[in-house]
């Protein structure tokens, strides 16, 4: 059979008819990929200092031990773990005759109690990265920020599946479905979301006969409310039925059939 001419606007209308789920799904996925994720990447690149990205395992394994002198000790007050703040230690050391400075964060507060500005400490240095000997580095778990866009993406995918998959199925039926006659069982109004009424539609329950004469029951949504006055239970309606799977069907949309000159 020849494919019917179906426009992109028909797909857009089908997606709109699946509101609010389809729209929420698109908004959540768009927000996670194009707003939240870039914002978090920008934030981590802008606010994470170089020493917070060091590979401390490599430094410990391959580093050269050197002496250093503490130049500053400062608690990180905007981070609290079990009621305590990580300590940021700034220090200077001599490397090939050049005085260099670096920083290190730790939660080993018992080991740092005796430290003060001017204290001598042991550090390891490797490929322009350093760490203080015998102290565990504190690395803020920035990966936690990525949970938010992940949650948005998962929720968006779920909402999209609820809204977009049926819309795409009906779009395919518009193009390729066989025209069959069905019988209305019931017409049920759906009031949509409270106050806004977004998602208002009519649910049509119907049945039709398969090629072997067996009854197949189906349902279809429409936003053409004229059907409530033009049709009633036991009236006949036109359906699109999948040629490959007779259980897949949808009602022939009257307005789209007229606009696209389907001559059904």
TrEMBL record:
<keyword id="KW-0812">Transmembrane</keyword>
<feature type="transmembrane region" description="Helical">
    <location>
        <begin position="143"/>
        <end position="165"/>
    </location>
</feature>
<keyword id="KW-1133">Transmembrane helix</keyword>
<protein>
    <recommendedName>
        <fullName>DUF3592 domain-containing protein</fullName>
    </recommendedName>
</protein>
<keyword id="KW-0472">Membrane</keyword>
<feature type="transmembrane region" description="Helical">
    <location>
        <begin position="21"/>
        <end position="43"/>
    </location>
</feature>
């Amino acid at each position: 059979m020849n494919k019917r001419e179906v426009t992109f606007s028909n797909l857009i209308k089908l997606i709109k008819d699946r509101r609010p789920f389809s729209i929420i799904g698109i908004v959540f996925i768009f927000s996670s990929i194009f707003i939240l994720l870039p914002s978090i990447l920008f934030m981590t690149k802008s606010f994470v200092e170089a020493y917070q990205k060091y590979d401390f395992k490599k430094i410990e394994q391959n580093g050269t031990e050197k002496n250093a002198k503490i130049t500053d000790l400062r608690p990180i007050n905007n981070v609290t773990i079990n009621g305590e703040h990580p300590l940021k230690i700034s220090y200077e050391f001599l490397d090939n005759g050049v005085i260099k400075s670096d920083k290190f964060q730790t939660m080993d507060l018992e080991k740092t109690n005796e430290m003060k500005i001017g204290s001598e400490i042991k550090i390891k240095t490797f490929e322009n990265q350093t760490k203080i000997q015998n102290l565990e580095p504190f690395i803020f778990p920035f990966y936690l920020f990525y949970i938010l866009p992940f949650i948005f993406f998962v929720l968006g995918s779920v909402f999209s599946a609820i809204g977009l998959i049926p819309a795409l199925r009906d779009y395919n039926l518009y193009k390729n479905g066989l025209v069959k006659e069905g019988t209305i069982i019931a017409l049920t109004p759906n009031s949509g979301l409270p106050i806004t009424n977004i998602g208002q539609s009519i649910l049509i329950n119907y049945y039709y006969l398969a090629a072997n004469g067996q009854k197949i029951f189906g349902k279809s949504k429409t936003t053409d409310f004229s059907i409530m006055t033009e049709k009633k239970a036991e009236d006949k309606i036109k359906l699109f039925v999948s040629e490959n799977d007779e259980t897949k069907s949808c009602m022939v949309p009257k307005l789209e059939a007229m606009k696209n000159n389907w001559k059904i």
